[in-house]
Amino acid sequence: TASTTSSKHKDTLDKDIASKSDQHHHHSRASSAAAAAATAAAAAMDTSTGTATNDLLLASSTTTTTTAAKGSGAGAGGEAATGASPINAAVATTAAVGGSAGMSALDPSVVASILKTPRDERLRNFLHVFLGCSLDPLEPGGGVDGGGIEPSKVSRFTGLLSKLMSCVNQLEQFPVKVHDLPATAGAGSRGGATSAIKFLNTHQLKCNLQRDPSCTRLREWRGGTVKVDPLALVQAIERYLVNRGYARLRDHHHHHHHDDNTDDDNTDDDIDDTMQSISSSQGSGQHKLEFLIGEHVLPYNMTVYQAIRHYSQEHSPNDDNDGELPVSQSSIWLHTHTIYYRPVLEEPPVKSSRKGKVGGSKSSPKKKATDTLITDVALIGGSSTILDSLLSSSLPPSVTVKDPCLEVLSLVKVMAVLNRYYQTLYPPAPTKLPVTMMDFQNVKLTAKANRQLQDPLVIMTGNLPPWLPQIAYACPFLFPFETRQLLFYAVSFDRDRAIQRLQETNPELAHGDSSERVTPRLDRKKKTVSREDILKQAETVINELVPSKAMLEIQYNGEVGSGLGPTLEFYAIVSREMKKAELELWRGQSVAVEEETVEGSAKTVKYVKAATGLYPMPVAKNIKSAAMNKIKQKFKFLGKFMAKAVMDSRMVDLCLHDCMLKWLLGEERCLGLADVLALDPQFGGTLRQLHGLVLQKRRLQDQARAQGYSTVQLQSSISGIMLDGCSVEDLSLNFTLPGYPNIDLKKGGADITVTINNLDQYLQLVVEWLLRDGVRRQMDSFKEGFDTVFPMTQLLVFYPEELEQVFCGSAVAAHWEIKVLTDSCKPDHGYTHDSKAVKYLMQILSEYSSQEQRNFLQFTTGSPRLPVGGFRSLSPALTIVRKTFEANENPDNFLPSVMTCVNYLKLPDYTTLQIMRDKLGFAICEGQHSFHLS
């Protein structure tokens, strides 16, 4: 394995790697195979030049450079063979070196060459051989057009990725937690799980609450042993004690004999009932008591069952091995467990430092953006800061678990990063991912993750194995979106929301005997609002609910209907209100719309229409503070509003542009001219034309240096650069942001003319102001509001393009297929799938336009959008029932009606298809904005 093999063809490389990977079954040999397969990829990892192991992996001599280039099949016109660097494209040869032993065989002169080669050049070498990208740093998009890279050019990349995935599968030893009791006869595949749930729902833990010895200012618990629901959260015990006055700190001079022992006479049953009744409490912001088992402080969102399993000395450690005994055989049910309570220490410095941190986040990114202005935008093919931050020789520090496959996973992550961000090494151009994200998914790890995330007992007890969130957040590409979304709800919010989400994906969990049922105990807060001036009321409602964590339910003034339907409509209406042009929040075209008021009169309202998605309107530095504060307040509310919608599994009707979604994931650093093209194709196209002039200038400068032109000759050549026969000066541009003449790109910008000599700076500043500096204060306010509901960092398990599904659900399909509709809908109470009316409905829905689809969904569910997964994921399923009438009444004279809370469509049995089309069309257009009993 230490020998270097000539790699003239891809097959030779594949066979060499396969012989090392597929034939070795021991971990040590599999690790060597991983190193052999990943040698080339590893060269792209290390950002430092002092680490020989990773920096030397792209090593070769001039001779093997030519050989590798010929065998790469990249079709790059022999660039690698004629390049100036001695290591231009030697990746394929080096990939055959077997592990670290092969590194020691490298020639010292080759080592020296590698260390002198800039990392970005090494990355382009790798991309050239494995993806067919250009070696020229001035080639827009790396020579890859918007249609993507030809499949033949990515075969090396996918081949290497496949070998690495095989190594991961051989090496990984991530445990799967199993809690199932033996399944009862006829219980089915989930019998064991439901038996365990029944056991936990019918048994209680015996706990002894004691005041911590270090504290004398709290009342001492004298109520004896407390029986606690094992699935109650630790914060439920806090609420129990707080409600009974045990969180009040006494004066130091207070005498012990003044303890109020009014609780002493409570029976175990009384305490048990109280504990169960509050076990669903979500906590209200600030905690007053903290709890300990031994020396361990317990997390508030941990179940009591899990806390005792982890920390109680009475619980035998042998019970907690990976195999895990069934819950009924655990010793924790036999012992009385002591839980200490003490006051939470108030720490004002923590608050101020947290506040300072928020403040710092507003200023430090701005400084960074200024310092890295030229390279950040990647206008001239310079280094990309996003690659600087993401390319690493190891997984992030957040991964604390140990496993033999971690080293290989770090290499897979390098490949995933290069696949997503390779274009930042070149001037901007429209590009697509060379390899789909699906190719990076690991089937074996996904199966393990799904086993854990779909086990109700794992979710109910909060017993996810640590490796799952750590690996998923460090390497989200390993798992499909649906798996990561389940994980997101399992780790981001309280247990009951996770159970509810699990129940939506597995409806059978809600059925069966009550003792075997998975039942979320969510606190709900009903709020009544008026349809007039709803945005102002929404701000009040959301601000009130943020600390309580309760589920929001909406009812409208003068309407008896409440529940899911009105609540979903509330999120849709507020979303529409946030798009009003008068708020001056978004860039885009203002469009006038005729609307009907609550009183029935007509009015004209202007909304912002952004064809590519909403993005904040840039604001000048010198904007009046009152106007800026108004904008910031709206964005702060929007952050809270959208976070609350995600927490409650509701959908907002706001199509945000990917550029804004990148901000939410901290990827604003990588925004550049290519993003302007996506945000505004017409304006971005103009900037791209101007950028072409900058590239011409750069090439002339490179040519002048190579051929020894004089300064006069160079300047003469540069002066001849034209755009459609016009010089840059003839375009009459100045240093203000196009479309926003009040925003100077630099001090006195309105008086500075753009020339060929400062055009590159002009383009950099335009991109900077449009995508970053001009929107930074708005986005900081959005993040600040969002973080008050739950940490925005929890979204890092997703990619920017996936966040629209997280916030908005499924995008409306261009066409609803009859088969999908039939499979997803449930006829009942007078109808079957063979009923004439049901078949009519399926045909009508399949012919609906996009706007008609939105109207139908708004009418039947309360929201104009479907959840992720479309109709199949609608919970409960759309149920079509026959609307009943008196014997002498004609169904053709009646309109359909709905029960939005359960997605019921009450459909008359119309005599013809056209009558149903007319009646349904009238209902979905006119039968909105009001909820009554039906």
TrEMBL record:
Residues 261-273 have a biased composition (Acidic residues). The active site is at C901 (glycyl thioester intermediate). Residues 1-35, 253-285, 504-525 are annotated as: Disordered. Pathway: Protein modification; protein ubiquitination. GO terms for biological process: DNA damage response; proteasome-mediated ubiquitin-dependent protein catabolic process; protein polyubiquitination; regulation of signal transduction. GO terms for molecular function: ubiquitin protein ligase activity. Belongs to the UPL family. K-HECT subfamily. Residues 274-285 have a biased composition (Low complexity). This is E3 ubiquitin-protein ligase. Residues 543-934 form the HECT domain.
